[in-house]
Amino acid sequence: MAAEERRGMGVKRKAIERHLWLALSRSTSFGPFHLLPPHRDADPPLHSPLNTNSSSSSSPSAATPPPLEGMASGGEAEKSPEVVLEWPKKDKKRLLHAVYRVGDLDRTIKCYTECFGMKLLRKRDVPDEKYTNAFLGFGPEDTNFALELTYNYGVDKYDIGAGFGHFAIATEDVYKLAEKVKSSCCCKITREPGPVKGGSTVIAFAQDPDGYMFELIQRGPTPEPLCQVMLRVGDLERSIKFYEKALGMKLLRKKDVPDYKYTIAMLGYDDEDKTTVIELTYNYGVTEYSKGNAYAQVAIGTEDVYKSAEAVELVSKELGGKILRQPGPLPGLNTKIASFLDPDGWKVVLVDNSDFLKELQVFSGTDK
Ligand SMILES: C[C@@H](O)C(=O)SC[C@H](NC(=O)CC[C@H](N)C(=O)O)C(=O)NCC(=O)O
Ligand SMILES: [Zn+2]
Asked: Phi/psi class of residue 337: alpha, beta or left (left: φ > 0; alpha: ψ in -120 to 50)?
């Protein structure tokens, strides 16, 4: 292909990408788009009354989405709860990424790449909406979990709140990684390497420039070093039941540590040493936590957002939580998503697996 033609193709692709990013960030009729920080979630400054980490339900203003597949829409037989709850057990879900806000994107990118060895996977500026995204992780997004950072122009700090716990990085030598962090990067070691209190696993803690905590965990080789998202919850049994029934997660491990008055549960879609898990922490007697406006949500891939949203809706009636954004295609991109709050108010965005992979093709190789 002649150079002229190649240039033309490049220009065309850039124009398509720009259109898609703008379409996504402009649509105000739906909740957060999982790849783009919901510009409504890419919040104005902390003090702004517009700071809407709202849980108000929002449905697409575009054509009314089809009734949830199998849901009664006048005259159709209601699906039995058994049928609805069969779906999460059959679905092929995957933890895709966690979305959160930072005060200086390049500082965090430098930190995560130099300290932890992450790769910058994608970066994209959306000047019309005054924010920039960057995706980092240890492998490509079609197989590995990613951290989706959001920088809102002019906002240099956020409130992380008390509910967000940590991300975790598995490493074969915590001592060595901690030394590297101390000597060569802008994170700081807040807990020296050593056996975890009440256990034997060697851990350390590092804190990034925005205050996010990274647990460094000693483990053997793993295909997914970015191994945990830890969130604090007010009722561990309720949460375990919710994540099992509504999202088909497996309870991989549960550990009570009475000497330190806490219990943790690891939930996910594969073994702990192979994939990213959600670590839920219950501190005895603590039923609620502030959530701040820094951490936004986790995105989970699914084979069918309609069926998955049905299951979430049903389980939420029993255990709490609520649908924020009914399932349906995003205007302009046709990626099917849904979003909801879990019983503790932690936000989750469900994303159609095949749509997500198509998007990665469109956005792959964007500016880094
Ligand atoms: C299993 C591993 O991934 C952990 O995260 S356990 C680490 C341990 N967790 C807690 O103490 C949870 C309760 C705590 N009050 C909280 O809310 O975070 C931990 O942080 N240990 C500290 C240590 O120095 O060992
Ligand atoms: Zn942990």
From this structure: beta
